[in-house]
C-alpha cells in the first residue's frame, strides 16, 4: 500500500493502541493482505462500502485505495477514532466515521445504491451481525455483497453443505438466501496480537429470488431439529408436532433422517408446514 499515510505500526504507536480482547479486536497490519481482502469484494469503483470494526484503519485504507467511492466505518472503540480521522483527512469527503456498537447501529439506514459490506468483523459479534443481515426484510436486501472475515470454524459452518458434520442452523439460513464460499484463509501471524485460531474470508452474494419461506418459521424448524441433531427427525420434531410423521410424509422426508442430511429446500418445506 503506497497511499502516502504512515505505516500502520507507526499509527498504532502514535495513538497507543492495543487490541482489547473484550472488544474482539485483532488488528490486521499486513497491507498486502488488506489489499487482497479489498480486491475480494469485487470492483469497488463507484461503490459504497460499509466496514465494521476498522480499528486503526488498515482495511479502510485498502478499500479507499482500491477505488471505493465512499466508506462508512463503524467503530466502537474511541481510541481508534484519531487514526480514522487521519484517513478521512487524507481522502476528503470519502470516509464517514460512526462511533458506536455495530449491533445497535441501524446499518441499513446508512446504505445507498451499490452498498456492500467488507469487514474484518470483531470475533465476538461476527455471527450475530451476519444472522441479522441474513434476516433482512424485504429481500433482496439493501447490500449487494458481503465479504467478511470470521474464525475458520465459523466460516466452515456458514458454508457447510448437507451431510457435513458442521452443517447446521447457520448453514441453512445462509444457503437459503445467499451463495456463500470461503475465498481464502488468514493465518494468526497476520494479526496483532496473533489469535489462537485461523481466520477465513467468506464471500456471500444474495440470491435474487430465494424459495418462499418465513424467516421465523425456518429458524424455528432448524432450532428444534438441530437442538437434538443426533436424533431422527420423527423424534426431534416432536417439539413442533406431537406426531411429526404425517408432516414428514407430506414433504417427502424420511422419518429416520437426521437433520444434517436434509437439503435447504427440505428445511424450507418443513418451515412452510408451520405457516401454510
User: If classified by CATH, what would the architecture of the largest domain be?
Assistant: 3-Layer(aba) Sandwich
CATH superfamily heading of the largest domain:
Vaccinia Virus protein VP39
- Unreliable spans are none
C-alpha-based Rg, rounded: 21 Å
Q: What is the helical fraction, as a range of percent?
A: 25-40%
Strand order of the largest sheet: 4-3-2-5-6-9-7
User: What's the tally of helices?
Assistant: 11
Main structural class:
alpha/beta
Biggest β-sheet description: 7 strands, mixed
The overall pLDDT, averaged over residues, is 94
Please write the CATH class name of the largest domain.
Alpha Beta
Oligomer: single chain
Strand percentage lies at 15-25%
Overall 3D geometry? elongated
**Strand segment tally:** 9
Provide structural commentary:
By secondary structure, this protein is of the alpha/beta class. It folds into 2 domains: 8-206, Vaccinia Virus protein VP39 (Rossmann fold, 3-Layer(aba) Sandwich); 215-275, Helicase, Ruva Protein, domain 3 (Orthogonal Bundle), CATH 1.10.8.100. 35% of the residues lie in helices and 18% in strands. It contains 11 helices and 9 strands. It has helices at residues 8-14, 31-40, 58-65, 81-90, 126-134, 152-159, 169-177, 215-227, 233-236, 245-250, 264-275, and strands at residues 27-28, 48-52, 70-75, 95-99, 115-120, 146-151, 178-186, 191-192, 199-206. The strands form 2 sheets. It has a 7-stranded mixed β-sheet, sandwiched between helices. It has a two-stranded antiparallel sheet with strand order 1-8. Helix 8 crosses helix 11 (264-275). It is elongated. The model has no long low-confidence stretch (mean pLDDT 94).
Amino acid at each position: 500500500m503506497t497511499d502516502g499515510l504512515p505505516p500502520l505500526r507507526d499509527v498504532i504507536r502514535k495513538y497507543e493502541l492495543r487490541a482489547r480482547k473484550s472488544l474482539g479486536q485483532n488488528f490486521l497490519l499486513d497491507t498486502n493482505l488488506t489489499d487482497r481482502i479489498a480486491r475480494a469484494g469485487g470492483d469497488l469503483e463507484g461503490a459504497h462500502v460499509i466496514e465494521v470494526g476498522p480499528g486503526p484503519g488498515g482495511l479502510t485504507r485498502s478499500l479507499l485505495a482500491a477505488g471505493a467511492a465512499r466508506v462508512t466505518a463503524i467503530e466502537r472503540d474511541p481510541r481508534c477514532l484519531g487514526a480514522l480521522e487521519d484517513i478521512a483527512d487524507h481522502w476528503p469527503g470519502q470516509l464517514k466515521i460512526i462511533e458506536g456498537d455495530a449491533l445497535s447501529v441501524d446499518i441499513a439506514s446508512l446504505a445507498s445504491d451499490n452498498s456492500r459490506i467488507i469487514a474484518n468483523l470483531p470475533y465476538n459479534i461476527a455471527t450475530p451481525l451476519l444472522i441479522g443481515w441474513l434476516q433482512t426484510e424485504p429481500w433482496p436486501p439493501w447490500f449487494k455483497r458481503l465479504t467478511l472475515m470470521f474464525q475458520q470454524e465459523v466460516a466452515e459452518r456458514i458454508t457447510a453443505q448437507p451431510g457435513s458434520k458442521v452443517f447446521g442452523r447457520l448453514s441453512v439460513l445462509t444457503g437459503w438466501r445467499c451463495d456463500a464460499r470461503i475465498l481464502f484463509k488468514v493465518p494468526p501471524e497476520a494479526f496483532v496480537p496473533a489469535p489462537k485460531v485461523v481466520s477465513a474470508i467468506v464471500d456471500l452474494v444474495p440470491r435474487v429470488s430465494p424459495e418462499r419461506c418465513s424467516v421465523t418459521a425456518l429458524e424455528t424448524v432448524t432450532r428444534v431439529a438441530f437442538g437434538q441433531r443426533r436424533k431422527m427427525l420423527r423424534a426431534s420434531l416432536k417439539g413442533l408436532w406431537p406426531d411429526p410423521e404425517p408432516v414428514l410424509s407430506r414433504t417427502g422426508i424420511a422419518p429416520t433422517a437426521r437433520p444434517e442430511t436434509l437439503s435447504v429446500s427440505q428445511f424450507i418445506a418443513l418451515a412452510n408446514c408451520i405457516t401454510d
